[in-house]
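Dear support,

I submitted the protein below through the web form. The confirmation email said the job was done, but the results page showed an empty box. After a refresh the structure appeared. I'm attaching both so you can tell me whether what I see now is the final result or a partial one.
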Amino acid sequence: MMHTTVGWHVDMEFMEDDQHTRAVAMVRLPDGTEVRAHGHASRHRVDSQQPRVGEEVAGARALNELAMRLLTKAHEEIDSASGRTSHPIHV
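What the results page shows now:
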């Protein structure tokens, strides 16, 4: 049986104008470290305004960057603890 020992909550914030959506993703780790990432989406001038779509694209890009930052952090911690260079973690 598995037990949950820790949980993470990711906060997303969006800033929008008529043509652009920016997203910021942030996760606070149990050790108090905060990892932040950004995403961006642009609406082509002939496309209809659909703010939700801009949020989805910008949010997905921010989450993708957040995932890569977390992988980099994990590599650094593995390398620091082991004294060697770890193998890449592929996504």
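Response: this is the final, complete result; the empty box was a page-load delay. Strands lie at 10-16, 20-28, 34-42.
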